[in-house]
Amino acid sequence: MDMPIDEPLNLTTQSVLTFGSWGITLILLIVTIRMGIKERTPFYTLIVLAAGVAAFAEPLYDHIMMLYFYSEGGMWTHFTSFETPQPNWTHSGYITLYAVPAVHYTWRIRQGMLARQALYGIVAVEFLFSAIFEMYGINGGAYEYYGPHVLRIFEYPLICGLLECTQVACFAVGAAYLRTRVKSNWGLLGLFALFPATFYLANAGAGGPVAIALHLDDPKTGITLAATILSMVLAFALIRGASLFLPRITGEDSAMDDPRDPLGAHAQPPLPEPSAPAPTAPEREPAGVTAATADRVEARPSVVDSRRT
Predict the structure, then answer these.
(1) Any idea of the CA torsion for 53, 58, 59, 60, to the nearest 10 degrees?
(2) Integer angstrom CA distances of residue 71 from 5, 14, 191, 239, 300
(3) By percentage, how much of the chain surpasses pLDDT 90?
(4) pTM value surpassing 0.70
(5) Confidence bin at 92 (pLDDT 50/70/90)
């Protein structure tokens, strides 16, 4: 299918996405800087910056998932790649969609407040938020997924939202582990490599089947549907895998204190303290034996000793 290069851009939607997402970015930077001062680490702020920098690779995603940003009519853009112009709000959009939940995930992991089952609930909430964001952009006239996607809601392919949530879950767990392993703040710069690694782990890895089906010379609805379902299964497998690095239960025992198990994934409930042994009754001396009798017995020489003398 051809790119919709002649579709007009809705300037109102562009303004809302631009100023709204950059406003969220500014607020998040202030919050993460304060969190960093409190915990004496640039970790959370670097998550925000890593997401923003990773948006320079957005043209790869656009090509894989067949997304096109409308440019006719005055797009605010800073570069074009893979024949797709990139709006200025892609960087703040990445921060809004990916960094906001990632900061929340990693903070809860650090506090020992994110257990395996809770991860699924947070992923579901994130999926809803991502869907609302993208449905507005699509139906508001800012961009579209022009490929032969199936399982859409208001023109939004559900597989794209699921893969986005998968990426955030994998990135957050990986980032939390990275924080426990590095010996200095310089090591946290690995977040800039970790983000695109998990991003394309989800979108080109788990999303590989659907991406190939979309780019077939003669795409078939049945093949695309089967590939989409397979990608969904792989995405759920990745989320399940990420959850296994988290503790089964929340609490102090699941905080990242053990260097051998920093996320508390294998933490077991504390064993009950052994009960004190029951008091035993004092031994009773044989009947008829008194202290005086015992002294006389000890003082009396034995028969063997008298014979030897």
Answers:
(1) 100
(2) 7, 10, 32, 35, 118
(3) 73
(4) yes
(5) very high
